[in-house]
Write a structure and sequence with these properties.
Length: about 425
Amino acid sequence: MPNITTVILAAGKSSRFKSRVSKLIYPLCGLPIISHVYSVAKKISGKNVIIVCNKENIKELKLILKDCTFVIQKQQKGTADAIEQAKNKIHSKNILVLFGDVPLINFSILKDLIKKFNFSKVKASLIAFRTAKPFGYGRLITNKNVLEEIVEEINLKSNQKKINLCNSGVLIVEKKILFDHIKKIKINKNKNERYLPDIFKIFNNYNIKTNFIECRENDMLGINTLEDFNKVNIILQKKYIDKFIKDGVNFLQPNTCYLSYDTKIEPSVIIEGNVTIKEKTVIKKGSIIKSNSYLEGVTISENCTIGPSARIRPNSNIGRNSRVGNYVEIKNSKIGKKVSIAHLSYVGDAIVGNNVNIGAGTITCNYDGKKKYKTIIKDNVFIGSNSSLIAPLTLEAKSKIGAGSVITKNIPKSSLALERSDLKILRNKGTK
């Protein structure tokens, strides 16, 4: 959208978030928390996005956020000071202020905010929400739908504490008007910071028109602790799963499943309970993902059956009408059509053709301690149970591997390969 620079405030110290990494880069459904906010900001402002960060987190943020401008807030002096640090980098008429730790904000809400801001021709507009538990939030003081001021929890009078209309902090404001008056924001003595929402009282005192819109409380949830993170994660998972259910995907136990932000599932797929689907996963129509399976970076083609308790790792592709059964692990492999890997097998760094049967307990031995090697299994191969395939190796079409064999050489087309020791039965001399 033209004439809007989005400023994302991300200079907090994350002191309450008990993690070895900053909360802003902590993964939420496969994306860093701040990336959820950033993706929405890009839809609004394109490359006109400014990240106000601190000197400790700027390096890690630069690794994940591209095509934006970074500004350092040297001291934690509040949100008004943070915006002032970005002043010289803002070249648009209007400023949209977002927070790096509020990942449920969505494009639809911001469109409503911008629409009301433009239509009503005010100088600033804010997103507010109502909650049954307003403690801790700044409250909106209104008079006949006029926003007079926002009062922080620590400054509330006793008769104001029951107000349930709360400040999200997300706002849009005309740049010139903001910076004409921002110096008038006083330091809050309790925290020695200057709060940007105080600008609304100043605007009201100068008869500068402002307004607000309301949204759902859940859309404005911030993440300060791991408890907050889990609450947001549950909401986001439900959002993803509900969308797929509406599109024709059947989740048998939806509350037990985990999806990623980029999960793709076609209609008529069935997902059983306790299924984890990580990033870069595509599941095509007619497939069934049985309980306790774990998929990451995989494409499951049409009409496949996966699991229960299967693990398919990145860079794997499962062909149409194939079956990957219980306790099967597949890694970096292309599996053809009508392949059966029913149970207790490992297939890694392999190319498997069509109509192949891989018996229970079969493993591709793809690693010699230094390098990974490929196993190529061509069409119509039958591999007996408990076979070990020592890569690099090629099993030509229609070849068969006897159960219990250790295969170290390429097997020609239509051949049978057997490798096993002679059976010896030794009689106990003490037995009659």
